[in-house]
Write a structure and sequence with these properties.
This protein has no helices and ten strands. By secondary structure, the protein is mostly beta strands. The strands form three sheets. A four-stranded mixed sheet has the order 1-7-6-3, with no helix packed on it. Strands 2-5-4 form a three-stranded antiparallel sheet, with no helix packed on it.
Length: 106
């Protein structure tokens, strides 16, 4: 089993496949999404914090890609605070802007 693919929230990671993709399945589309750039290239995009998996098969049903996807916060440029039981997250680069509530799900 391959190591999980780590992707930061609201960022993408390009993956080169060993063959032409026919079917793409994202187990939890609230955590990650996939865009095909061509038959053998895809970009995995982090949409929400968490872990999901992506499976890609070819026209004959052979598995080309089957990996866990871990979506985490960027290493820098974010700040969070909790007030009255409500957590708020901000992306700061260079000004702080609120991150959408859908992206803040644990």
């Amino acid at each position: 089993m391959a190591a999980p693919l780590s992707v930061h929230l609201d960022q993408g990671s390009k993956v080169r496949l060993p063959g032409a993709a026919r079917n793409v399945v994202v187990a939890n589309p609230r955590v990650a999404d996939v865009n095909l750039l061509g038959p053998q290239d895809l970009v995995v995009i982090g949409k929400g914090y968490g872990v999901t998996n992506i499976v890609v098969t070819d026209a004959q049903g052979r598995t080309l890609f089957d990996r866990d996807i871990v979506v985490s916060a960027p290493d820098q440029g974010q700040v969070s605070y909790i007030r009255g039981g409500e957590a708020r997250a901000f992306s700061c680069s260079p000004r702080c802007e609120p991150i959408s509530p859908a992206a803040q799900r644990p």
